[in-house]
Automatic annotation (TrEMBL):
This is L-ribulose-5-phosphate 4-epimerase. Its EC number is 5.1.3.4. SMART domains: Aldolase_II. Gene3D superfamilies: Class II aldolase/adducin N-terminal domain. It is an enzyme of class 5 (isomerase). Keywords: Isomerase, Metal-binding, Zinc. Residues 7-183 form the Class II aldolase/adducin N-terminal domain. The lineage of its organism: Bacteria, Bacillati, Chloroflexota, Anaerolineae, Anaerolineales. Belongs to the aldolase class II family. AraD/FucA subfamily. It comes from Ornatilinea apprima.
């Protein structure tokens, strides 16, 4: 079932350790099929090297397992809360990436300091603490993320959303890179924060001008 989405979600999960966004079994990626609303998600607590397109788990929006022998990610309900609240979201990523999470443990949002914030939606807002694995954290993600593609949750890590699993994965990589640059800059001074006007300009640049146009 949903072979193409299984493969995309598997590949995106593998991009997390490849980009040093997770350690051991932490983190997860899911994708939602626009036709059926079924969600493909990583199984819980399985080493990345043991993942395959076939052992991704398919759940419905109520969390029932539709296909798969393994238990889905502990964060499944969190992803589902977001998918139920946001019909425009078709992919979601969770990481504990180091630099971004260091802002989360300080209780600080990540400031928009580079033009790549145009891929993220500006700075990365901070959500309140909520234990992993339930609806509460999903509601906090929905409430805080607003028009952004990313949020950091206090003392926990990063959640990103997108038009696809691949898009949300790209955002997760860019969040970590911007957090690292902000962190390094803050060691040596006070970084210049982009203005709302500059954020609009770079966001529009990525949407309208960046990449191949056919
Ligand atoms: O945040 C947590 C636990 O702190 C989880 O997201 C784990 O990082 C990954 O859980 P699984 O997806 O393997 O269940």
């Amino acid at each position: 079932m949903l072979q193409a989405l299984r493969e995309e979600v598997y590949k995106c999960n593998m991009l997390l350790p490849e980009n040093d966004l997770v350690k051991m079994t932490s983190g997860n990626v899911s994708g939602r099929d626009p036709q059926t609303n079924l969600v493909v998600i990583k199984p819980s607590g399985v080493a990345y090297e043991k993942l395959s397109p076939e052992n991704m788990v398919i759940v419905d929006l109520d969390g029932n397992v539709v296909e798969g022998d393994l238990t889905p990610s502990i964060d499944t309900e969190t992803h589902l809360v977001v998918y139920r609240a946001r019909p425009d979201v078709f992919g979601m990523v969770h990481t504990h990436s180091t630099y971004a999470t260091s802002f989360a443990v300080l209780g600080q949002p990540i400031p928009p300091v580079t033009t790549t914030c145009g891929l993220i939606g500006g700075g990365v807002p901070l959500g309140r603490f909520a234990c992993f694995g339930g609806e509460t954290i999903g509601h906090e993600v929905v409430n805080v993320i607003g028009d952004s593609y990313a949020v950091i949750m206090q003392s926990h890590g990063v959640f990103t959303i997108g038009h696809s699993a691949s898009h949300a994965t790209r955002v997760a990589v860019e969040v970590e890179e911007m957090a690292k640059i902000a962190h390094l800059a803050m060691l040596r001074g006070k970084p210049i924060i982009l203005t709302p006007e500059q954020i609009r300009e770079v966001s529009s640049g990525y949407v309208n001008d960046y990449g191949q146009k056919k």
